[in-house]
Structure formats: C-alpha cells, structure tokens
Design a protein that fits this description.
The protein is α/β, with parallel strands linked by helices. The chain has a single domain, classed as Rhodanese-like domain (Oxidized Rhodanese, domain 1), CATH 3.40.250. It is built from 5 helices and 5 strands. The protein is elongated and about 70 Å long.
Length: 126
Amino acid sequence: MGIWSYVIAIILGALIGLIIVSRKNNDFSSIHIINKKDFKDNMRKGQLIDVRKKDKFENDKIIGARNFRKSQFSSKYNKLRKDQSIYIYCSNGKTSFKAAKKLTKAGYRNIYILENGFQDYNKKEL
C-alpha cells in the first residue's frame, strides 16, 4: 500500500466520524410533545420549566414552575438535572421546542413539551 492509501483511509475515517457526531447531535427522539392532560398528570414527576417572558410568568404560571426565559436559557439550563425528566412550556409551544432542542444537544433526555403551550392550559378544566 502506498502513502495515498493511508491518506484516503484517514480522510474516510474522519468523514465517517463527522457523520456519526452530527447525527448524535441532531437526535431529537427524546423530545415528546404531549397534550395538556398528560402534561398535568405527569409534570410533578420531573422538573417544570416555563420559558415565557418574566412578566407573563409572574402574572400566571403553573405552580412549581421555574422561569428560564428565552434570553437567559442558555446560561441557566445547566442548573437542571440530567437524571430527571423535564416538562417545559411557553406561550404557544414554539419557544419550548427550541429550548428542548438545546437541551437535547447538551445531553438532556426525556423532555416533554406542553402541546400548544400555556395558552391552551386551563388549570380549572382538568
């Protein structure tokens, strides 16, 4: 085998490694969007996070939730435990999904998002 065979083998190995790493970082199978009944029935089994703006959080929230608003999320999520499920909500579900993707990339698993967000959550209905 010539030197070029070794160079090609190294390059192919590096490419395969990059593919494996990129797939691992984009695996969002641990993110689950659940309806309000399932959310309410299970949210006390994990960490409850509200990612809405502070004024909305202070005005009305699910009791026991911690506020990790969007602008501070990246610096605060490391306070969460990786060995417990995370139940997360925002106003409409979009910010929650973005936050859940960040958590997944950081190694968190079992993340549950309130479907349609807090706008559809009615504490008296359930």
